[in-house]
Structures are given as structure tokens and as C-alpha cells.
């Protein structure tokens, strides 16, 4: 009996194949998922299922589909796809969905991202706890006998529909021709980029020349981890952008739902800057349509996000870190856009779900249309500068023996004694201390990991010296007494 608490987590299923994540477990999860989504509303006609390029995917999908069919529900298999491709299929078909992927995890892992019909998220509080409970029962007592009329399985290719849908949201027709290096990391962007930015799905050519890097689908990740959040995994892209004289570079993670951007000099553009850039485009479009734009951002995005978006006439809503919180707020607020500093970007017009490819199209459109007053093209480094006025530490992790005690030392120094002067404090997600309304301007967030004895620190300030001082002072408190 596998430890399902460790396998079926707060937001998705994730584990090593085949122990604990075996076809037997996948079959039980399939039966449980079909039961849970059916109980959440009207009877569900089918479940749409996709997978990434991991070698373990086909057997797990087959087992999951057997579980779904066994309780009388049909299955629509869309085969190889990105996670946002699965969200598109779920949204367009109005069906609950299951995406088999372990995102950026190593090759021995696989997992499932589950969603309700219309790409609505399924997390701990929105059905996943029930899936875990029912899966445990099925594994202990046996998966229910096949229904009198088991469900059917049919295959459907949705790649061209996905590409057409995205292109309909951002017009690249009038932009200058751009050269872009794309690092797919041997992940699913190797399938989706040629379809969306090229003509592989039968669509018309765009004014974009793609230089491919690691487009071969290979779940063993032979070149580097498909995790662009780690700086080492961007080095090949950065070098290729400079070598090819490209206008920009794009890096996608394994399931291609996150997109990272580097400028023509090979320098990374902060995901917060991309949130501000794309957010402003969506705000202006919403205002032009007579709407009152709302934008969601999590609490570790740069202060530039609310600064610029509020100045543009949007209302901004700050949330906890994590896609389920962003998606829930997107739906609750009717937000036009949402962004996280982890490079997840969410769009109302994409079923309130996240899609790195749509964010990439916005960046291409913004760069391709940016010109100086005398008509010269603006490079991405200059365009991005306006969206990166502050200095951030990035996330710094500290392994500590006693997380509560370390946090208490920081509270004592910065809250009770106001070590940096008058501050505002909130505990929406961890501890956020802000001195932004006074000089010198800085803020930090200190969050505990849900799974490890780690404290995660993010610091931002108006200048580098202040950021370094606050970062080092907080880290000294956190790591006090550690070897």
C-alpha cells in the first residue's frame, strides 16, 4: 500500500515510477477521479487525458483510462501535449481532464495534474482530498467491478485547435520580423512551439524565425533539467541567443506551461517584469472594451507589478503563492490576468488557466511593435528595463533545525523591535515585512516549505545595497546557530 499522502499532494499527483506510482495506483486514481468529478455536479460524459514525453506515460495513461472506463465514464485521449494543451482541451470540450506529467522533476518521476470541467483547478480543497481517500479505499478493497456498460476510449488530436486558439488571442501580423531561440529542454515545447510559432499544425507562417534548442522529445532529459528556474539550465539558451544574434530567447519547462525569457544580450528578464508587461497589455485591452480590469499577482512578485498596473487603471489583488490560489482568485474576481514570480501566467481568456505559450506570444507582440520615436526597433533589454526598476534577491533557501525558532528570531528583530524602522506586517503566506512606504524602501517574505525543514526568503529593495543588507541580516537571523 503506497503512502498516498506523499503521492497525492495538495495540488497534484507526483511520485517515482513504479514505486510508489505504479499502473495499479494509476488505475485506482482513474476510477476515483471519475467518481469524484461526477459527484461534484452533473454526470460527466468523458474525461480528457493527455501526457508528456516521459517513457512511463503510456502505461500509466492506459491504466488510468481503464479505471475511468471501469466506472462507466468515457475517455478522450489527446496523446502527447503540453499541460496548457490539456487545459485548452478541458476548457474547449467542457470536460474534466488529467495531464500525465511531472513537470521539471527528473526522469524517474511522473504525475497527474487533474482539473474539473472547463479547466477549473482541482486541489486539496476542491476534490483532490476526496480522490486520495477513494483511491486508498480502492487499493485496499479492490477497484470496483467494471460497470454494466463500461466507458469507451477515443483518440483526438487537438494540437491544431490549441495553436489556432492561442493565435486568435494575440495578433502578430503587424510586428517586425523577430529571431527567437527556444530551449525546449527536450520537453513538450518541442511539440507546441513548431505548431504555434511555426507552420507544423498547418497554420500560416508568422514573422518569427525560430532557432530550436533541444526540441527532441526525450523524457530522460539528456541535455539539462527542464527547469528554467535554475540559472544553470538557462546557460545554453543565453549563449545561443548571443551566438545567433537573436532578438530574445524563450525557455520552457518539461510540460511547457512555464516560460522564461532572456533578452538579446543573454540576460534573464524577471518573471515579475513579464507579469507587468503582459498585465499592462491585458489591462489596456480590457479598458478598451469598456471593462474594469483586475489583475492577480502572488506576494513574492516585484512591487513593480502593482505599481505599474494600478497606475494604468487596474485593481490588483495579492494572493498566496501557488496556482490553486491564483486560479481561485482569478475566478472570484473576474480577473483578466494573473502572474507568479515562478513564471506561471494565467489568462481569463484561457479558461483562467496558466499558459506559458500565450505569455510568450504577448512578449513577441510587445517587442515586435516597440520602436523609438525615430522608428528604430527597441531591443528587449531596453524594453524590459522599464519593468525592472527594483533589485531582488531571488529565492534563498535555508535548511534549519528549528523552523519556528528561526522565524521567531526574525519576528523579534523586525516586528517587535522594528529593526528597520516603521514596518507593515502580514501573514497571508509566511511572514511579509514591508518598509516600502518609507526610505530606504525594502520588503521581504519568509515562508516555510510544506515538505522540508526549509525557510524560503525573498527580498526586494529600491537599490542593491539595501537589498543585500536586508537579505544578509535576515539570513543571519535565520541561520543563527547552524553549522
TrEMBL record:
Residues 395-475 form the Alpha-D-phosphohexomutase C-terminal domain. Its cofactor is Mg(2+). Residues 8-126, 161-266, 274-385 form the Alpha-D-phosphohexomutase alpha/beta/alpha domain. It comes from the Bacteria. The keyword Isomerase applies. GO terms for molecular function: intramolecular phosphotransferase activity; metal ion binding. Belongs to the phosphohexose mutase family. This is Phosphomannomutase. It comes from Cellulomonas bogoriensis 69B4 = DSM 16987.
Amino acid at each position: 500500500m503506497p503512502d498516498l499522502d506523499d503521492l497525492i499532494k495538495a495540488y497534484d499527483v507526483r511520485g517515482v515510477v513504479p514505486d510508489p506510482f505504479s499502473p495499479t495506483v494509476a488505475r485506482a486514481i482513474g476510477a476515483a477521479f471519475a467518481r469524484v468529478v461526477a459527484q461534484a455536479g452533473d454526470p460527466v460524459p468523458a474525461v480528457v487525458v493527455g501526457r508528456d514525453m516521459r517513457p512511463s506515460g503510456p502505461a500509466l495513461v492506459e491504466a488510468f483510462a481503464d479505471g475511468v472506463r471501469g466506472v462507466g465514464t468515457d475517455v478522450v485521449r489527446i496523446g502527447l501535449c503540453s499541460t496548457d494543451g490539456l487545459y485548452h482541451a478541458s476548457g474547449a470540450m467542457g470536460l474534466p481532464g488529467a495531464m500525465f506529467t511531472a513537470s521539471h522533476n527528473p526522469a524517474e518521476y511522473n504525475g497527474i495534474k487533474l482539473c474539473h470541467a472547463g479547466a477549473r483547478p482541482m486541489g486539496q480543497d476542491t476534490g483532490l482530498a476526496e480522490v486520495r481517500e477513494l483511491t486508498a479505499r480502492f487499493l485496499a478493497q479492490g477497484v470496483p467491478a467494471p460497470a454494466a456498460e463500461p466507458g469507451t476510449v477515443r483518440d483526438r488530436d487537438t494540437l491544431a485547435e490549441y495553436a489556432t486558439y492561442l493565435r486568435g488571442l494575440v495578433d502578430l501580423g503587424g510586428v517586425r520580423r523577430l529571431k527567437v531561440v527556444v530551449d525546449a529542454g527536450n520537453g513538450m515545447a518541442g511539440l507546441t512551439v513548431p505548431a504555434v510559432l511555426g507552420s507544423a499544425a498547418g497554420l500560416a507562417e508568422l514573422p518569427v524565425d525560430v532557432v530550436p534548442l533541444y526540441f527532441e522529445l526525450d523524457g530522460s532529459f539528456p541535455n539539462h533539467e527542464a527547469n528554467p528556474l535554475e540559472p544553470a539550465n538557462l546557460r545554453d539558451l543565453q549563449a545561443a541567443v548571443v551566438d545567433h544574434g537573436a532578438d530574445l530567447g524563450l525557455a520552457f519547462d518539461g510540460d511547457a506551461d512555464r516560460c522564461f525569457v532572456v533578452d538579446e544580450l543573454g540576460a534573464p528578464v524577471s518573471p515579475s517584469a513579464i507579469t507587468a508587461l503582459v498585465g499592462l497589455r491585458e489591462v489596456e485591452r480590457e479598458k478598451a472594451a469598456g471593462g474594469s480590469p483586475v489583475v492577480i499577482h502572488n506576494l513574492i512578485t516585484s512591487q513593480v507589478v502593482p505599481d505599474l498596473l494600478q497606475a494604468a487603471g487596474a485593481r490588483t489583488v495579492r494572493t498566496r503563492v501557488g496556482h490553486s490560489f491564483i486560479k481561485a482568485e482569478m475566478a472570484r474576481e473576474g480577473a483578466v490576468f494573473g502572474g507568479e514570480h515562478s513564471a506561471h501566467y494565467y489568462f481569463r481568456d484561457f479558461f483562467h488557466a496558466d499558459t506559458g505559450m500565450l505569455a510568450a506570444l504577448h512578449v513577441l507582440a510587445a517587442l515586435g511593435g516597440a520602436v523609438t520615436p525615430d522608428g528604430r526597433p527597441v531591443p528587449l533589454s531596453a524594453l524590459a528595463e522599464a519593468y525592472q526598476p527594483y533589485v531582488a534577491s531571488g529565492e534563498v533557501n535555508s535548511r534549519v533545525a528549528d523552523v519556528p525558532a528561526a522565524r521567531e528570531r526574525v519576528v523579534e528583530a523586525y516586528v517587535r523591535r522594528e529593526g528597520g524602522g516603521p514596518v507593515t506586517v502580514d501573514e497571508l503566506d509566511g511572514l511579509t515585512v514591508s518598509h516600502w512606504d518609507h526610505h530606504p524602501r525594502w520588503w521581504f517574505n519568509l515562508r516555510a516549505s510544506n515538505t522540508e525543514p526549509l525557510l524560503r526568503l525573498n527580498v526586494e529593495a529600491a537599490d542593491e545595497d539595501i537589498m543585500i543588507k536586508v537579505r544578509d541580516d535576515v539570513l543571519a537571523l535565520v541561520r543563527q546557530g547552524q553549522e
